[in-house]
Amino acid sequence: AKLVMGAVTGVAKQSAKQSAKPAGEATGEADELEAAVSGVMLESGETIEADAVVITMGPWASLAEDWFGLPVPITGIKSTSVVFKSEEEVEPFALFCGEDDDHGTHLEVYPRSSGEVYLCGIGGSEYVSPERLRSGEFPPGQVPPDPSRVAAACNAFSAMSNRLGKPQPDVAQACMRPCPPDALPLMGKVDHLRGAYISAGHNCWGILWAPVSGKAMAELLMQGRASCVDLTPFAPGRFMGARERGTRGRKKGATPVGEQW
Q1: Residue 123: which of 92, 149, 87 has the closest Cα?
Q2: How far is CA 189 from the centre of its chain?
Q3: Tens-digit pLDDT profile for residues 47-57
Q4: For a Cys-Cys bond, which of 164, 200, 220, 255 suits 61, CB 3.0-4.6 Å?
């Protein structure tokens, strides 16, 4: 196995008759498939040969729509967060605030043992369509924070804490949360392409769900099925020819999205 990060430009394919079956694929299974993955293509022009490829790219897993030939309607919710640093010890208690109509925030305050205080729940998250993600408008690692939301967080937090709040944070940053339209991640095998798998779209629960997601995908690849959890509701092909289901995380006119998770 080889972990490839940050340089993938596509997935190479070949005839399924020419490909080796992944370790977990049972004899006789999916013999009717016409195509199979054969490797991962990199920016350098190199192709890393592989008989199984797992796309675990968060919101940028939407690129697999072109690579695998199936709808991957993962949209990005671009959310700003900030960090304040304290020279004094910070009490180890998280704080979840209600809606602050003055600043448009509902702060979540997370003290760290390093003396830092991390703030999210700043509000004003931006909806980023799969098309914009695939266009390269927001490359991984290059997602800028919203200055207006940084200011809102500073003002809201300063009103709560004279000791920790500052006019400017020590760190301003943004993340891109991956949100499928039905609020369920995509995890499993791509049925029409041998050796193709996806595990993405966990929204803000990626860290919490990472252990079971990793175990389930490992079981699927090595044993042909996941025994620790039923992956049926998360099938990557569930959007093939189907109307989008659910409204959680979807933009409705001028209504902000991404804050109701």
Answers
A1: 149
A2: 18
A3: 889 999 999 99
A4: 200
